[in-house]
Predict the structure.
Amino acid sequence: METKYISKEGLGRWFDAIVASEKRIYAPVKSRGQVDFKQVKSLSEVADEYIQTTQSIKAAVFPKAEILFSYEKVNGKVNLTDFDPNSVPETVLWKVHPCDAAGFRPLSAIFNWDSADKLHNAHLSRTTIVSYGCAIADESCFCTSVNGGPGNLNGSDLQLTMLPDGGAIAEIITARGETLASLCPDAFVADRGDDKSAHLVDLPARFSLEEVQSKLNKAFDSSVWKQQSERCLGCGACAFVCPTCACFDIQEDVHGSKGRRIRCWDACGFSLFTLHTSGHNPREHQSQRWRQRILHKFSYMPERLNVVGCTGCGRCSRACPVDMNILEHITSIAEQ
Amino acid sequence: MSERNTYLPYLMTIDKVIKEAPGVKTFRLKFQNEEEAAGFTFQAGQFGEYSAFGEGESTFCIASSPTRKGYIECTFRETGRVTGGLSSLEEGSTMGFRGPYGNTFPMEEWKGKNLLFIAGGIALPPMRCVIWNALDLRENFKDVTIIYGAKTVNDLVYKSELKEWEERPDVRMITTVDPGGETPDWKGEIGFVPTIVEKVAPSAENTIAIVCGPPIMIKFTFPVLAKLGFTDEMIYTTLENRMKCGVGKCGRCNVGKLYICKDGPVFSKEQLNLIPAEEY
């Protein structure tokens, strides 16, 4: 890893060089009072001050709906057209928060723990992640409680921490980050010795992860799941905004003799998620589904995949239409 | 990149269609691509994702025995969009298959033991694979007992094979139907599977019990087996949670710390005790 300084002017030149390299760039853009990742062509389109994009950036490596393969039926035979990894363009994810960058590891763990997921890997291997250290946070943020932090480098290829002069501390973390920086090498100059932490938000930990995990190991039959989920609507918003939720469905899209098999986002909070054809549903009640959500992220994933399925981004709490707050619920489990 | 797209199915030709019971069919499938056929192996207990192009995929076990080479078979009941689509396919048609997935019955470990098969309804297919596997290697096992029940005589699947097993001197075959499900000329037992197991009272000594059936049948059969002296490590079952990917990614069959598709579908009762019973 290498630390450099990049001036405001240098940042603009570097961004233009990335645009000129014909890489696709996704960055947070403000529109109708909401900030979300959109394809951009200039640095001026990038949103300035905001807490969090509504959606995480996971769709860049796990699209909401993705064609697994296509087929055509011809005279009783079927011709298959496989997914082509080369159809995925080189992409730069710009101004990703460290909590979103940290989400790439759990996502990849889910997609690759047993067998390699060719589609996810095709996206990931063509993606460069430029994160920005966080200068602001709100009451839903809790990255520091789940092994993260406002300047955490996990998952980033290059991280910028903005300085008052409009320049930034540039931490070049991976070879991909280096390649991206090399598009405008003279923009990156010697580190001035700026204190990174002075330019990041101070966010004390809200709970002890170890304590939560040890409580969860014995909490399967606890009444807490019912209490906490009594008002849950099962709408799945929490899963759709989550940077690490990866549950999916496989559906068919048919037009005459042609068709496509499609992977699309799903959620363990949906009542139909586990419903058997026979009518039997192993997770019939919302409380069981809420329990699955929490245990999967904080207990099953750490044990099976050696990674926590939560990065503390707080989106699920912000998106919940009935104000179920994950931080509050996790804290109350830790305090039990 | 040479790695295969996990979700791309093998193309299969439906070589034979057998009507088993109302709405229940068995398909015999052959690989269209010879290279894929040559590279394909599986073991008893494994499953796959079967697809009707235009409708989608469904999860069924491989119902044929790995000892029978050159094809695989699946048995399914027409209940929804995919099984409806599959059911409308005729001999010679093309369908998709992904697999084999999941773990296997430990047939090697069972050498020299008595095998007791207990199945209910449409749960005979996963067991049929093991039964034929054992019968094709008959000298490896001692007594083979099969207790199979369905709601009605009409609902019994693999009727010609039931007859074949009944006629074999080296198999003890007990067939039963639920009370009211019998026909005037029915010569088998009448009663629910757990009741019949209690009545037949197979010896637990040196015996492995393989139990497959609807959750309610399993729930009431386990205590009967316990009463007969079967301990948890002598009892095996297969779980059939809803699945989409079959390879531990889609999250659907996650129960406790386990994925039914990866850690199962075959579990001993001893292993089942490690996961919450209300979730399968």
Q: What stands out?
A: Chain B touches chain A through 44 residues (CB under 8 Å). Residues 35 and 139 of chain B are 33 Å apart (CA to CA).
